[in-house]
Amino acid sequence: MVETTPSPFTPEVRARFQANAEKASRDFRSDVVTVPTEDMMKAVLEASVNDDIYDEEGDPSVKALEQRLVELTGMEAALWAVSGTQGNQICLRTHLTQPPHGVVLDHRAHVHCWESGALPVISQASTTTVKPKNGVHLTLEDIKPHIIPYGNIHFPPTRVVSLENTLYGTVLPLADAQAISSYVRGLPVAEGQQPVRMHLDGARVFDGVAAEGSDLRAYAACFDSISVCLAKGIGAPMGSVVLGSGAFVARARWFRKMLGGGTRQPGMMAAAALAALEHSLPRLPAVHGMTRAAAVELEALGYRFSLPPQTNMILLDLDAVGIPPAAFVEYCAREKIAVFPMARLVFHHQTSEAAVRALVSALTKLMQDKKKGVALEDKKIGGGYS
Ligand SMILES: *Cc1c(COP(=O)(O)O)cnc(C)c1O
């Protein structure tokens, strides 16, 4: 007789999963809102539970995830981290050994604007912010004049150039990353100094590479360190992975511990993240297609975008069409669609076609009312990233 193991997914558990996924399907605030699938939960049940700090061989599930990222990127070594912020700050701290030193980055960069001011606190670094001339992404021409060479005591020498792909859903193309990288790596190195390092905040690098149709390994080759988020579009419950050379990762491990990222049984979360990666990576092009199709409809309704919709995000420019953020949130809420007042619409693997219909219908009504001169709610509202 064949013994069958009872499924851990009782009808009650399944119903709860479906309800969670249904809620996520209508949530356009971010791609962090995805919820675990049954496959991810199965992976959790099958995960190893070693102590990732004490056990000398580490944790097999964590190692399997790290190894998968090494394979995908062609980087030498990988390290599991708790969050994207932690991943970025570990990388930057590992590169930035002794002030005075500075980081050149986009003026909108997450590591500069959205990480609670961690960079000057943790790495004692100055920043040089750069505005891309093309209004979308940095190029070598933007970066060049901002590199501070070692030598003049008035200025903190540039030690890291930190790029971001995607940034507000826009792609930093491979050709630009390559041009910046070869310029930076070709800079003269003063005696006793390290070469200037290239870091990538690759929170959504899978989206960037999928949208451009570029090669992830060629992309990764431009950088000395990369931090990749697994809890964004990939859909893991938590976690990021830091990538670099073997020596870099060995040193980064100290900073992960120092920043509270040495965890005991992270195998369960790493296993969920690996299952999420295998599930979501092949689905990114479909998510981007859905985003572009919605953008075409919204543009036809008269909406404008503050940045081009290139991956899984639409950034509406509500100001340009005179629609107050409060009305935008309210009209979407009437259709049971969750949005932030900043009017960034984010699509993910659990976004449903029905939700996109509801979103477009809410925004159709909003634009019609605006054109009719209906008084729109204009109170100041907060929430999320406002
Ligand atoms: C989300 C994000 C991060 C990391 O954020 P956490 O919430 O700390 O995981 C880093 N960079 C970018 C561009 C992001 O979007």
UniProtKB/TrEMBL annotation:
Keywords: Lyase, Pyridoxal phosphate
Database matches in InterPro entries: ArAA_b-elim_lyase/Thr_aldolase, Low_specificity_L-TA-like, PyrdxlP-dep_Trfase, PyrdxlP-dep_Trfase_major, PyrdxlP-dep_Trfase_small
Positions bearing N6-(pyridoxal phosphate)lysine: 232
Cofactor section: pyridoxal 5'-phosphate
Cellular component terms per the entry's GO annotation: cytosol
Keyword Lyase attached: yes
Domain Aromatic amino acid beta-eliminating lyase/threonine aldolase: 27-319
Gene3D superfamilies in the record: Aspartate Aminotransferase, domain 1, Type I PLP-dependent aspartate aminotransferase-like (Major domain)
Gene Ontology molecular function terms on file: L-allo-threonine aldolase activity
GO biological process, one term: L-threonine catabolic process
Organism domain of life: Eukaryota
Family that this chain belongs to: Belongs to the threonine aldolase family.
Name recorded for this polypeptide: Aromatic amino acid beta-eliminating lyase/threonine aldolase domain-containing protein
